[in-house]
Design a protein that fits this description.
heterotrimer; A alpha/beta; B alpha+beta; C alpha+beta; A: alpha/beta; 4-stranded antiparallel β-sheet; 7 helices; 10 strands; globular; B: 6-stranded mixed β-barrel; 17% strand; elongated
């Protein structure tokens, strides 16, 4: 599904050069639930961003569905992201100025779909995460768990092949976190590939496969 | 403490640059208005050198073009029949009336050394000084006893006298109009010296002036303006009878009769209206700057709420937060004004505007505009600062 | 898609009320001022009403005479003789009017003196301009030919001089001459029609004016159609070339131009009396440049405020990018948001401009002012608004769209 070959990434700030990832080879198989673990600052979020084409590797190649990503031109990656990935963030990143339904609809805006179908699919996605009744609310009127479920609805509304979740339960208490995990597992069982960054051993073990990152390198 | 304020300002320099530009622009416009107003006030408090009350000017409009030749009989008749009217105390003639935007400029020379000086001048009759209630500083007015002298009798103002004859008594000295020895030069003899004379009125920049004698008997060219000193308390309705009387003397002319007070307010208006227009523009600019400042400050304080919470948690009082924001704003405005001042101070140093922008005007204008800009800045900072200082530390820290 | 932009814009703006209010105030105020200025300029250059036929007539206002070798030059209004002998016989014109510029005159009544403006005009003047006659009539060709002492007043002057009574038939003593009022016309403040009192040119106290090449007159030349105007311009230049002065030793070269209103103002401003090109294009360019300059400060404000919002909206930008928005779509979105706000501000500005003009007309600050906002002004206003929206929207939008998604999501810009 997604293959990373000899990926390295460095960050430059004024004078200091930090090596975030070094020579990573990783293969994400279709339909698996991959957990990426590691202490904070080890580069696991960077790895996730690279998988999701949010960031450009310093060296190495990434291929999606067998095709290597050659161009990181804004327009090309934007389309690829839109078609292939759904993102879930630790701090939800919902747009507070928009209602829940509009937030969920967002990924569909960047495809040419008629408005009616967009709304229909957004409604379905919200129902799948159990928030069919909250469509007209604003994000800050919801609890943290509900907000993260809205974010998941947004991630799946475009029916992406891969869900990328960056510590999706990090800002939630254990009960809400459990609900979110259940939801992700159910989506995985329904056929979506999930890649999740976490530092919770128990959560990681619920996935099908674990990789560990330490100091920018894979240890497994 | 001060460094703590400056550093974040510098960090946000690209954002603050725009704001600084706006402040700079507004500052310069406000300065221009303050400078113009100050200069006007300065000029207004100088003497004009004549009294305009109960003096009327009569403009004789002629039909034919070309130079006006002297018709001594006409001037004689005008003078006698008008002075016979009980309302009229005195009748004088001149090239043009005070408070009318007409100038006649020429160069005068010292006959021996050839030193040149540009000066304004006009022809006036012997009664001009009395009609306009002018004060003589030295010598005497020219009069009919000067009739027939080879050199044209003139009265000059103090400024010209000091420039041409520094440290000497100018009375009795001679000047040459036109380069000495050239074809069209003529000799002038100074009979008296007056103080300032500013014929365009209160807002005219003081300059050199020569009043040349117009004699209905011997002058080559005629003049077309009458100045009538009226008995105090004569109403405007007298114009009807005056016009009838003038028509009796010469029927083929139109006469434009205007009290000097009317001409005065017209010419003052001409100078002040542009200033009013400029002030409207400046008010608009200031309002824009105020909007911009307020909006940006609002955003800045909103964004910095966690920082403010942290400061509160570290023990800053609400008042300290309040002052921090106001002082930051003042610093930003001061930076803009400092740049503005560096630019503006070049004006009096290089003297491009000459006496229009002398140091006194400059300093007053700077004070006024700095005060105004500071006021606007502080007023814009008050509400955002108040809001930030009112927030409780826990609230501020939780704010996303 | 576009509808979605509208909804997003609407929601963003209604949720940030203070920010929106400040932005709107900036925009409204700026556009109001610009619209008022545009309306005034439109009224001066392409008037409707009394001088509504401006697209069909030209004016000759200045004669430049030069002596042999160019030693002395005289520039001034035309004499009546010049208009009568040289301009009236022109082939390309339908009608030629001679009028004097307005002069101050004292009007004497039993107990008071009023200073008013008086024009002397011939009969053609009343045909070329569309005065709205409220009472009585304007001077006929016979009135002018016979030198009858008749006068026309404008409405304000009639009401001022004869309060509570009809002005018609009243005796008017202006500068010592007595006229009979035969008509009252509506007030107007346009270049050729502005005055308080009009009397026939033949009532001048002296008949000397008939023999002058230089004087106090200018000419209006009416064409059959707007298409004829270039012909008139060419013929006037030709007439000037063949002009014979009374004393050819004093003046032997003459220059005259038939000008539109825009040309007239441009000539006055740039002192281009001696060349055929009045500099009208330059004048328009300067006006446009001044307007842009005037927009600069409020535009800077919007740029500043919108740029400031990048931080506030960085999470939104990150999310949109993560879900597949390209930079271009984001630029379009933000620019549309800004243009929409500007259009709304423009609408408010238009209402405010109409109110301001109404106030100006009624305040008497500029006497006789009457400006209407027509479609042309509205079109200009729309163009100005769109330009302003783009000017103030593009930079922040570009900056926003350039944010790197990872950075944007971290909220550090």
């Amino acid at each position: 599904m997604i293959r990373l070959e000899n990926i390295s990434k460095t960050y430059r700030t004024d004078k200091v050069e930090t090596l975030a990832l070094k020579d990573i080879n990783l293969h994400v198989n279709k339909g698996e639930f991959l957990s990426i673990m590691g202490p904070s600052g080890c580069g696991k979020s960077t790895l996730l961003n690279l998988i999701g084409l949010l960031d450009q590797p310093g060296a190495g190649t990434i291929s999606v569905d067998g095709a290597a990503v050659k161009s990181y031109r804004d327009k090309d990656v934007a389309q690829l992201r839109n078609q292939t990935f759904g993102f879930i963030f630790q701090s939800f990143h919902l747009i507070n100025d928009l209602q829940v339904i509009d937030n969920v609809e967002l990924p569909l805006l960047y495809r040419s779909l008629p408005a009616r179908e967009r709304k229909q699919r957004a409604r379905e996605a919200l129902e799948r995460v159990g928030l069919g009744a909250r469509m007209e609310h604003y994000p800050n009127q919801l609890s943290g768990g509900q907000q993260q479920r809205v974010a998941i609805a947004r991630a799946i509304v475009g029916r992406p092949q891969v869900l990328l979740a960056d510590e999706p339960t990090g800002n939630l208490d254990s009960q809400m976190g459990g609900e979110v995990m259940d939801l992700l597992l159910r989506l995985n069982q329904e056929g979506t590939t999930v890649v999740m960054v976490t530092h919770d051993e128990r959560e990681a073990k619920r996935g099908s496969h674990i990789v560990r990152v330490f100091d920018g390198q894979l240890v497994s | 403490m001060f460094r703590h304020l400056l550093k974040p300002l510098w960090k946000r320099k690209s954002r603050n640059l725009m704001l600084t530009l706006e402040l700079l622009l507004a500052f310069i416009v406000v300065f221009a208005i303050a400078a113009a107003s100050t200069r006007y006030y300065q000029l207004y408090s100088l003497p004009t050198g004549f009294a305009h009350e109960s003096v009327w000017s009569v403009q004789m409009e002629r039909a034919q073009d070309g130079e006006l030749s002297n018709e001594s009989a006409l001037y004689d008749q005008l003078k006698r029949s008008l002075e016979a009217m009980p309302e009229i105390e005195r009748v004088a003639f001149a090239d043009f009336s005070p408070y009318v935007r007409a100038t006649w400029q020429s160069g005068v020379y010292l006959p021996d050394s050839g030193a040149e000086m540009a000066t304004d001048m006009m022809h006036v009759s012997d009664d001009f000084f009395a009609a306009l209630d002018m004060d003589l500083q030295q010598g005497q007015w020219f009069s009919s006893s000067d009739e027939g002298s080879a050199e044209l009798p003139v009265v000059i103002n103090r400024r010209l006298a000091d420039a041409m004859f520094p440290g000497q008594d100018a009375v009795g000295k001679r000047l040459s109009e036109g380069a000495p020895g050239s074809d069209n030069s003529s000799m002038l003899r100074i009979t008296g010296v007056i103080g300032e004379f500013r014929n365009h009125g209160e807002l005219m920049t003081p300059g050199n002036f020569i009043l040349k004698r117009f004699s209905p008997l011997s002058s080559r060219h005629g003049v077309s303006t009458l100045l009538l000193k009226l008995r105090p308390g004569t109403g405007r309705i007298f114009e009807v009878r005056l016009n009838e009387q003038l028509k009796l003397i010469r029927n083929d002319r139109s006469y434009r009769i205007s009290p000097l007070t009317d001409l005065r307010s017209a010419i003052l208006g001409e100078s002040i209206i542009p200033l009013i227009v400029l002030s409207v523009i400046a008010a608009f600019l200031l309002l824009m700057v105020a909007f911009g400042l307020f909006g940006v400050l609002w955003q800045n304080t909103t964004r910095r709420i966690p920082e403010i919470g942290m400061r509160r948690a570290a023990g800053a009082t609400a008042l300290q937060i309040y002052w921090q924001i106001v002082v930051e704003q003042l610093l930003l405005s001061s930076a803009a004004m400092a740049v503005g001042l560096i630019l503006l101070v070049q004006l009096p140093i290089t003297g491009v505007f000459g006496d229009q922008l002398n140091w006194a005007v400059f300093l007053i204008a700077v004070l006024v505009s700095v005060a105004l800009m500071a006021l606007v800045s502080v007023v814009c900072a008050l509400y955002p600062a108040w809001r930030a200082s009112r927030m409780s530390p826990t609230e501020a820290l939780r704010y996303e | 898609m576009f509808k979605n932009y509208l909804i997003t814009a609407y929601k963003v703006y209604t949720r940030r009320k203070l920010f929106t209010a400040i932005n709107l105030a900036c925009i409204t105020l700026t556009l109001m001022v610009l619209l008022v200025v545009t309306a005034l300029l439109q009224n001066a250059f392409y008037p409707t009403g009394v001088e509504g036929r401006s697209d069909r007539f030209l004016q000759v206002t200045t004669l430049v005479a030069e002596s042999e070798g160019g030693n002395s030059v005289r520039t001034g209004p035309l004499g009546y003789k010049l208009i009568d002998q040289y301009l009236r016989p022109m082939k390309s014109v339908q009608l030629v009017a001679a009028i004097s510029s307005p002069r101050t005159v004292s009007v004497y009544q039993d107990d008071r003196v009023s200073e008013l403006m008086l024009r002397r005009a011939d009969a053609a003047y009343w045909q070329i301009l569309d005065f709205k006659v409220l009472e009585g009539s304007v001077p006929s060709a016979e009135d002018v030919a016979q030198g009858r002492f008749v006068a026309v007043l404008n409405a304000s002057t009639a009401a001022r001089l004869y309060p509570g009574a009809s002005a018609l038939g009243q005796q008017l003593n202006a500068g010592g001459q007595t006229f009979k009022v035969i008509g009252v016309v509506e007030d107007t403040l346009q270049l050729n029609s502005y005055s308080d009192i009009w009397v026939p040119v033949t009532t001048d106290p002296s008949s000397e004016y008939r023999n002058q090449m230089f004087g106090d007159f200018f000419a209006l030349l009416l064409a059959d159609s707007p298409a004829q105007l270039p012909l008139i311009q060419a013929e006037v230049a030709e007439v000037a070339r063949n002009l014979q002065f009374d004393d050819p030793r004093q003046w032997n070269l003459a220059l005259m131009w038939a000008d539109s209103k825009l040309d007239f103002f441009a000539r006055g401003l740039f002192r281009t009396e001696r060349q055929a090109d009045s500099g009208a294009g330059l004048l328009l360019a300067i006006i446009a440049a001044l307007m842009i300059l005037f927009m600069l400060l409020p535009a800077l404000n919007l740029v500043n405020l919108n740029s400031g919002r990048i931080l506030e909206r960085s999470s939104e930008i990150g999310v949109r990018k993560a879900f597949g928005a390209s930079s271009r779509t984001l630029v379009i979105q933000f620019v549309i948001e800004n243009v929409l706000l500007c259009l709304f501000g423009g609408l408010l500005g238009l209402i405010a401009a109409i109110a301001a003009l109404n106030w100006l007309e009624h305040s008497g600050l500029i006497p006789y002012l009457k400006v209407d906002i027509n479609l042309a002004v509205f079109g200009c206003g729309l163009a100005i608004t769109l330009f302003f929206g783009l000017l103030s929207g593009v930079i922040p939008a570009w900056k926003m769209s350039r944010l790197h998604p990872v950075q944007a999501l971290k909220g550090a810009a």
